[in-house]
Amino acid sequence: MQRIRELTNRFKLGHFIHFSQNIIVAVLVLVLVKLGLTGVALTLVLISKWRIFAVQPRYWFVNLRANGADIIVGLSLVSILYLMNQNIESENQDLILISQAILAFFYAIWLVYIKPKSSEIFVALQSICALFLGSIALFWVAEMKNLPETAVILMVWMMALIAARHFLSSYEEPLIRAISFGWALIVAQLAWLLNRWEIVYSISGIVLISQFSIVVTVLAFYCGLAYHMEKTQKLSKPKLIKIMSGACAIILMIIILSDWKVDI
Fold this sequence. Notes:
Layout: H1 2-34, H2 38-47, H3 60-66, H4 68-85, H5 93-114, H6 120-145, H7 149-168, H8 176-194, E1 200-203, E2 207-210, H9 211-231, H10 237-256
Antiparallel strand pairs: 1-2
Helix pairs in contact: 1-2, 1-4, 1-5, 2-4, 4-5, 4-6, 6-7, 6-9, 7-8, 9-10
C-alpha cells in the first residue's frame, strides 16, 4: 500500500511539473515575441520537443513524424504572433495584445489538453489545426517576405503530408502512404492554383487569413468526415451526397463572394 501511495504521489508530481512546463512555454513564447526575440521563441518551441531525441537514433525519424503536427502548430503560432507584432502603426495596439494573449492561451490549451489526446476525434482536430494554422502562417510570411512560389508550394505539400499521416495514424489504414501522398499532391496543386490570386481576409487589420487556408480546411474536414464514416461503417450514399454538397456549397460561397484578380 505504501508503495502504491508513493507511485501515485510521483505521478501527480510529474503531471503537475509537465503541466507547469507547458504553461511556462506558452507564456514565454508570448513574452519573447513581444520583446522582439522571435528567433529565441522559435528555438524554445523546438527545444521543448527534446523528448523526440531522448531515445536511440533509429527512433528519431519515427518520433519526428509522430510529433510533426505539434511542431507545425508551435512554429505557426510563434510566426503569427510575430506577424501580428509587426503592426506597430496600427491604432489597435490593445486589441493586438489581447489577440496575442488569446493565441498564447490557445497554445497552452493545445500543449496541456489537445496534444496529449489520442482518440480519433482529437487526432483529427490536431491535424486540422496543423493544416489551418500552418497555412495561415506560411502564406502570411510569404506575403510579407516575398517567398518564392516553389518554396511555398513545397512547404504546403510537406504540411499536408504530415497532417494526413497524423490523421490516418489513428486508423488501421494499409494504404496510409498512398493516401497521404495523394492528399498532399492535391493540396499542393490547390496551393499553386490559389497562389495565382491575392485573396486574403483581414480580421480587424490584425490577422490575415489566406483564402487557401479556409478552402483547404473545409476540404480536409469533409474528406476526413467521409473517411471516418467509411471506416466506422456509417457511410451511405445519401450521407456521402450530403457531405459532398456541404463542402461544395461552402467552397462555392467562398468563390462567389471573392474579388478575383489575376496576378500575372
